[in-house]
Amino acid sequence: MQTDLLHRYIFDKLDVRGELVQIEQTFTDIISGHNYPEPVKQLLGELLVATSLLTATLKFEGDIAVQLQGDGPVKYAVINGNHKQQMRGVARLQSEVSGSSVPELMGKGYMVITITPTKGERYQGIVPLSKASLAECLEEYFEQSEQLKTRLWFATSLVGDKVKAAGLFLQVLPVNKEKSVADFQHLEALSDTIKDEELLDLDANTVLTRLYHEDNPQLFEPQAISFVCGCSREKTENALANVGLEALMEDLQKHGEVNISCHYCLKNYVFNEQDIKSLFN
Known about the structure:
The protein is α+β, with helices and mostly antiparallel strands. It has helices spanning 25-31, 38-58, 102-106, 134-145, 177-191, 196-201, 204-212, 233-243, 245-255, 273-279, and strands at residues 5-11, 16-23, 62-70, 74-82, 86-93, 109-117, 123-128, 150-159, 162-172, 217-219, 223-224, 226-227, 258-261, 268-271. The strands form 3 sheets. Strands 1, 2, 8, 9, 10 and 11 form a 6-stranded antiparallel sheet that branches. The protein has a 6-stranded mixed sheet with strand order 7-6-3-4-5-12. A hairpin with a 3-residue loop joins β3 and β4. The protein is elongated. The chain starts with a strand and ends with a helix.
């Protein structure tokens, strides 16, 4: 089964739209080398799915960041993406993880959704992490920001080095309110029957046929999802230039070289004395 795809779909006679996302390689690339505890891997998997679905739902060209921040064991977790479904992400821990729910991992905190369109003004939405699951927190976000009934279902699988994450999304269309609400309730009841293994292991056509075979879902062409870090030596040089020559020379005297590691992909950039001096010539 081909994964790392986002599928959009609508229904012939129902005023509801949906999305289905299934991710393996991108999820693997994001957590590779980080040695996160399993609950943190699961959180990042769900956050990755959420960001993919949001990027498709909010219909913009540009960048998106979906960040969780709190005072719990996980200080923050973030997925950065764009309208091309190019994703990267990282989590930072500040104490030992002992639970798996959003409150147990994040403590008191917020979800911050930042959209930076290629054209137009930057937008930021903030919602408290007051629910037990990330799906419920996002449903609250849609209730507040768009006033459209929305449901999300997430599933993750962590078996050795093989990780998977998937998500299902339903949202009413703002057409005939009475009809769209009835349509949504009908599809929501069907979607509630989805099992995690079906969402993770069956192809999109099979999932939608099993759930909605009498409602004739219409799939659009899928969009590929990929891991793209975006770090580079040039960007690292720009960051170093802001530190200043004096501080960098002190670092060189202590360590013989300046090492900068990307927080996302863990790639290491090494600068010797000649490299540092050339930045300021």
